[in-house]
Prior knowledge:
Elements: H1 8-20, H2 43-59, H3 71-85, E1 90-111, E2 114-116, E3 119-120, E4 131-137, E5 167-171, H4 177-186, E6 191-195, E7 220-223, H5 225-237, E8 245-266, E9 270-280, H6 290-308, E10 316-323, H7 331-339, H8 342-347, E11 348-354, E12 365-367, H9 386-399, E13 405-407, H10 415-420, E14 425-429, H11 438-444, H12 468-486, E15 521-525, E16 528-530, H13 531-534, E17 540-545, E18 552-559, E19 567-572, E20 579-583, E21 596-603, E22 610-617
Parallel strand pairs: 4-5, 5-6, 6-7, 9-10, 9-11, 11-14, 12-13, 16-22
Antiparallel strand pairs: 1-2, 1-8, 3-7, 4-8, 8-10, 12-14, 15-17, 17-20, 18-19, 18-21, 21-22
Helix pairs in contact: 2-3, 2-6, 2-12, 6-12, 9-12
Protein name: PA domain-containing protein
Domain PA: 136-229
Region (Disordered): 491-529
Amino acid sequence: MKLRIRASLAVTAAAGLVLGGMAPAMAAGTAGPTEHTDMGVTGDAVMKQVQKLSDISVANKDTGYRALGAPGYEEAVKYVEQTLEATGAYDISRQAFEVEDQTYGTVAVKVDGKDIAVNPASYTEGTSAPLTGLPLVLPVDDDYSDLAGGQLGCKASDYDDSAKGSVVLVARGSCTFGEKAQAATDAGAAAVIIYNNTKDAPDEELNATLGARIENGAPTVGTTYNLGNGLLEAIQAAGEGEAPATDFTLETEYKTVTTWNVIAETKAGKKDNVQMFGAHLDGVPDGPAANDNASGSAALLATAEALAKQPTPVDNAVRFGFWGAEEVGLVGSEKYVESLSAEELSKVKAYMNFDMIGSDNYVVGTLDSDGSDVPIPDGITVPDGSAELEKVFTDYFADNDQKNVGTEFSGRSDYQAFLDAGIPVSGLFSGADEIKTEQEVEWFGGEAGKPQDTNYHQATDTVENMSKEALDIFGPAIAYSVHTLAYDLTEAPTETPTETPTSTPTETPTETPTDDPVERSLSIDPKKVDENDFVSDKGVQVTATGCTAGTTATMTVSPQNGKIKEFEQTATVGADGVAKFGVRGLDESKSAEYVGKYDVTVECDGGDPLTGSFEVVAAGADDPGAGGGGDLPRTGSEALPLIASAAALIVLGVVMTMGARRRKAGSLK
């Protein structure tokens, strides 16, 4: 986290493809889910992926773990890509972008000859030469006991003329670190020391980020509450004109590096109704970054694997984003959102963010989009629909008797760019450097008065120091949210008839039929089809007549080319005794792989099975047929890739008479 500023038939078809090589396939589908589920994702499944990412980081310890510009980050990117590609269910892309990488040389501060432990702020400028003997001064404030008011240094007017050419000491709080550095720069300060405001954790280091470079900005560092408060007392104790003498050196260098986001989108689902989920993949250079944020990325990987194994294709496209350069200012997610055209941006209906879900002193936090627990910060406009997204989590936790709290819309993670673009956002968070309260201990256990993640941005952010209990809570919740936004629920069939049937016919049957019975027959149009027509909307139409109205007819297609497994498709027989089916291939790039003979059998009430066949011929063959006499209608249930088989392309034939009623549940249209 950045610092504050079921279709078994489909499975069978896939297995057949693995045996037959990289040919495209066809498969029939079933009705979608009748209730939302966590898809079987567990804390163990998430931890397995955390371990993989942590192992990559530890193996690259000497070159920056998984931080921006480090070899370990590119290795992690490749692992994510390979894991997702193995499912066969996603289109995967790597988005490259450039970002300024900052390294540090000597960083040293002395006040009246005493060394002060400090951390340089990311995006700070450096000193061109060591600053020596400068006065250490405060903003203008009448009361420095409340960690409020002018001492916060949020505006240039918080300083008087004493700030010019001096080192200024300001407290954390109220405004961003970047705003504090800018205000001090505007006031003419030579350098800035920001001290932590955490009285309950007085020795906690402050790692600040300015968010972006400030032109001619005053070099800025952070320090603990205890050290900062000691400096404050030294300034107040000094006589007029006798401010503590400060030596300040900050050596830093910027270089432009290329890094990447990984984007993966389901091949199935409505492409104009994209439900997006994201987590940053990079870490800080100080440690393995297991919780921050291998944990969020691992949850997405475990969920993506589970989603690929679902028995029916998703209704809405699901897009996963693994962000780079988050730790240096949310750069990756911002670059991604900036890269989308207005049209593409309008297709993204929701964004869920998962940044740190395994904190050792955790809370179960939801991004508080309605301000019910934490007031919405000034200047933040929460997009409509965000409260409904948060409700996905709060309802889930309520159903599982799990306490949870709202966390602040602070702009500390990758949801910020989506929020700024007006896209509804929510997410989960187990805590970073916030101090745990007694109430939170009562609800979640742990220890009050300590940070919710005691290993935040440290070398101790390891797998061993994460909370497995937190992963057990967050992992299934994340998977549930993905399922909820991915699927529109179908109506469950009634277990018993809605009415008791009468014991006798309601009408006396006629002695003779009122109409001549419809002759049973099977029509296949065309019986020979060009490979290019087969992968178009024309395809092959199969019509069975003479079936019993209102019953279910089953078509079995048996490919004879040895590359595609036999599959089935069902349709409801109409009042005219006719059942219609459609068969076509969806992978135009592999149209030649469909060439061959296909035997067709339709079983329906009213007589013996009906049989026939059709043939897909190579492009340019004699008499290839007319392509089915018209385009096949779309029912909205065409399947794109469903399940785990690298190179397996699972697609759905068009059922012309289906069309289960859907009730829209859990997705934003």
